[in-house]
Amino acid sequence: MVHELKVYTDKDIDTSKILNKKVAVIGYGSQGYGQSTNLKDSGVDVVIGARLNGASAKKAQAEGLKVMSIEEAVKWADLIQILIPDEVQAKVYEEQIKPYIRPGQYLMFAHGFNIHFKRIVPPADVNVLMVAPKGPGHTVRSEYLLGKGVPSLVAVYQDPSGDSKEVAMAYAWAIGAGRAGIYETTFKEETETDLFGEQAVLCGGLSALIKAGFDTLVEAGYSPYMAYFECLHEMKLIVDLVNQGGISDMRYSISNTAEWGDMTIGPRIITPAVKAEMKKVLTEIQDGTFAKEWMDEYNSGMKKFKELEKAGEEHQIEVVGKELRSKFAWKDNDKIINRDKN
Ligand code: NAD
Ligand code: MG
Ligand code: MG
Fold first, then answer.
1. Cβ atoms within 10 A of the Cβ of 269, count?
2. Is the Cβ atom of 177 under 6 angstroms away from ligand 1?
3. HSE, side-chain direction, 13 A CA sphere, residue 81
4. CB-based contacts of 22: which residues, under 8 Å, 6+ apart?
């Protein structure tokens, strides 16, 4: 397969496509916070649609943002960016958005899940588009403040107005993505690759790798503090190098001993069996098995979700990590996440 790279940066953007619009950001969680504050600083007329008097509404107001009910925000807006959790979007759409949506409005998503798996089916006269930052929402904000941006994907699902791609690109510019690169994709490709990435590599693969390494050292009698530094703390330092200059730059920086171990032992850890399992995981994403299991879990009360989350929080690595991080001289000064505010 030959893939053409379609990438846009700030110079390719008609910013009037977003500066002339009223934008409602629905939800003020990770992405809602990151995107709305950047939109505001870029000069976009933005309001937050949220449960009035809820914790998110209060955080948004404290940040100087205007807050409306979801229904009022939908009526007011030209463009609606849906930034509530994927699992609640279908219900909120049916009850609070669909009754007020108008022909020619732009209905936007940051992940294709509900459109691709047809849990939300908007009317044909509404534009359906996506701007999906390839990074956590809090980082969308922290990078913007550094004069950088998080690379973002744009996609168009239906386009009755004929300019949905330009609108998506202008929105992406306003959240800072044009400084890093705006990449064109489809709802199908974004949905399937995003789910695979977070399950197999970025979140699932990473946390399982960290914990397996930590447990191996601790079970062999080594100090959990040493195990924490080796398997968790250093991860960021290594990943920063990989992120900036690829695997080759990381190998340039580490010792020859580390590099030899990297190249010869790595494939013994991530074996062909692991890759075969990754392929199975990808198939379950593509055929809708994962989406069904996740929605069943949500609809039956999230019992297993909460159990697993709690077990994760109680794992020794979390306890040890909290203690060690409290010793760092820089403490909270530059923390990206502040749960009271964002
Ligand atoms: P989140 O869980 O951080 O935030 C959810 C927000 O929705 C909160 O303000 C919460 O109060 C509100 N909310 C929850 N239930 C609600 C309800 N029933 N009615 C009204 N408001 C409700 O969400 P998020 O992680 O920012 O994800 C938002 C979207 O962005 C999702 O589609 C997700 O896939 C996508 N996305 C997220 C990230 C990320 O960094 N978290 C990255 C890329 C894309
Ligand atoms: Mg995702
Ligand atoms: Mg070492």
1. 10
2. no
3. 32
4. 45, 47, 76, 77, 78, 79
Mean pLDDT of the chain: 96
Task: Tell which one of 48, 53, 65, 84 to mutate to probe ligand 1, the residue whose CB is within 8 A of the most ligand atoms.
Answer: 84
Measured in Å, residue 126 CA sits from the centre of ligand 1 at: 22
Residue 315 DSSP symbol: S
Mind telling me the catalytic residues? Answer: 111
pTM here?
0.93
H/E element holding 153? strand 152-158
Length in residues, the chain: 342
pLDDT class for 199, splitting at 50, 70, 90? very high
| pLDDT given for residue 329 in this prediction | 81
Residue type, 284: E
Exposed / middle / buried, residue 197 (Cβ in 10 Å: 0-12, 13-18, 19+): middle
Which residue's alpha carbon is nearest to atom 40 within ligand 1? 136
Ligand closest to 193 (CA) is 2
- Give residue-wise pLDDT tens across range 155-181: 999 999 999 999 999 999 999 999 999
The reply to whether ligand 1 has any atom less than 6 angstroms from the CB of 35 is: no
